[in-house]
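Work Package 4 report. The design task specified in the project plan requires that, given a folded chain encoded as structure tokens, an amino acid be chosen for each position. We show below one input record used in the internal validation round.
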């Protein structure tokens, strides 16, 4: 490896696990710099104080452990769900949407502490290195970025464990060999990838799943819920107002209990390869179905169809890491404008992995009983008007057909 750039202080995205603990020590040793650790609570379900204690044990003075759950859901997850964003038709972007928030907060901490660099633990094969670094540069174009997996000389898990033991970094017994698969989790989802999951033909074992019970094991009874919306965001559950993080937490539990939100996906990574992932998004799966149901009676056809046309582009921007790009912000402005009247209540049944919409109502509804009824509609719609409408729309088709008759 060539001589490293001079770094005075670096903010490390630090989980407290073995890999980021090795990275922490490697940064100290390679760059001879001060390290600031940043651990984000995004609702991953793990106790985070051990990360603080481990950082203290390794001599770190500036330690940040931040609860970002409300900001995560309110400012990142909810705007994305207003767009009904799914990547390649099915993936609810649980990992991708967390990265810009982590990157943003890292840059804020760098400013607060006078750090001139940031570091992450993403590998050189995946999407996260791109997401983190695009976020860093968008928030601070002059920041120095350290990506250890692209820089160091370690070739195997054995090399990492030997480095850890040399520097007295505790290595749990289950970390001495290769992990059976890697896991990333936050309040929106958990993802499992690699190792035993790499063969896309092999079914994942039940022990892979973190957030849901099997649909086969879910209760043989229906759970009925009502979600209230305000300007496109879920605001109440069964009549009780909840904050964004409270809402997603409650929906996650309902989804867990009913076996909802499992996804086995082969996706196209931004870096060019295909990968297989097993994802669980219990609350998000419920939320997406409810939001689309709410839009179905409150959005005009033109607005709804335009949103659906733009959604794949929006989802791709999030997946690729362009959250802070002007085009994503432009799309967000359009999407948020569409949500001004998306308010009301949706009723759903949850049953053995299924989310079933059974009702929707809104004071802003565009659904008209007078127009759709098969009964006498008292002049609300003159069916004879359809004749001219059809003939005008058929004009070019008839012209083409007449030309064909001459051929």
């Amino acid at each position: 490896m060539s001589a490293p750039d001079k770094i005075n202080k670096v903010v490390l995205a630090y989980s407290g696990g073995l890999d980021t603990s090795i990275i922490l020590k490697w940064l100290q040793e390679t760059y001879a710099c001060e390290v600031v650790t940043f651990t984000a609570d995004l609702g991953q379900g793990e106790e985070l104080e051990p990360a603080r204690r481990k950082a203290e044990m390794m001599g770190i003075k500036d330690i940040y452990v931040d609860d970002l759950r409300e900001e995560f859901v309110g400012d990142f997850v909810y705007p994305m769900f207003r767009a009904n964003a799914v990547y390649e038709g099915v993936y609810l972007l649980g990992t991708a949407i967390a990265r810009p928030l982590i990157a943003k907060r890292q840059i804020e901490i760098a400013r607060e502490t006078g750090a001139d660099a940031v570091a992450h633990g993403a590998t050189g094969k995946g999407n996260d290195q791109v997401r983190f670094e695009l976020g860093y540069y968008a928030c601070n174009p002059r920041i120095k970025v350290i990506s250890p997996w692209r820089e160091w000389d370690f070739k195997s898990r054995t090399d990492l464990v030997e480095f850890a033991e040399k520097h007295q970094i505790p290595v749990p017994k289950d970390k001495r060999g290769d992990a059976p698969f890697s896991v990333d989790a936050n309040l929106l989802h958990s993802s499992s990838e690699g190792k035993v999951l790499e063969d896309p033909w092999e079914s994942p074992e039940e022990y892979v799943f973190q957030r849901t019970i099997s649909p086969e094991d879910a209760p043989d009874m229906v759970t009925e819920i009502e979600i209230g919306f305000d300007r496109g965001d879920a605001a109440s559950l069964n009549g009780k107002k909840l904050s964004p993080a409270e809402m997603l937490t409650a929906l996650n539990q309902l989804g867990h209990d009913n076996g909802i939100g499992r996804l086995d996906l082969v996706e196209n990574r931004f870096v060019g390869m295909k990968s297989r992932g097993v994802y669980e998004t219990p609350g998000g799966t419920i939320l997406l179905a409810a939001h689309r149901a709410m839009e179905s009676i409150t959005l005009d056809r033109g607005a709804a169809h335009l949103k659906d046309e733009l959604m794949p582009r929006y989802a791709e921007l999030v997946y690729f890491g362009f959250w802070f790009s002007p085009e994503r912000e432009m799309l967000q402005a359009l999407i948020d404008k569409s949500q001004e009247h998306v308010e009301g209540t949706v009723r759903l049944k949850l049953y053995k992995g299924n989310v079933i919409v059974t009702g929707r109502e809104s004071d802003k509804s565009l659904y008209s009983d007078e127009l759709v009824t098969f009964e006498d509609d008292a002049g609300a719609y003159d069916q004879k008007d359809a004749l001219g409408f059809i003939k005008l729309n058929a004009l070019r088709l008839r012209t083409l057909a007449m030309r064909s008759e001459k051929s």
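The longest helix spans residues 385-406. Validation will be extended to a larger panel in the next phase.
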